[in-house]
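Appendix B. Chain record.
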Amino acid sequence: MSSAVPTGSGASPGTPRSPAPSPTNETENRRPLGDLVGVTRQTSVLAYQLGDGFSNILTPTQGYFMAALALAGVPWTRWARFIWPLQLA
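Structure tokens predicted for this chain:
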């Protein structure tokens, strides 16, 4: 999603939610998946933001990112070869 819509606030409405059915109460049929596995909602949002940030340092559709690479004189292919192993670690 980050390569098509490179901004986190713009991508969040288009990101599919992961509601899980609640077996105990039908009125709470759309509880977030993080609630069921014991992860707080704040942690779920932080995970979303960190994932967005990690993908933004690799995606060439970020204008400010490409400008910073150009000012530093670093080609994107060289940056990608450097950052790819760190992304996978």
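Further analysis of this model is presented in Appendix C.
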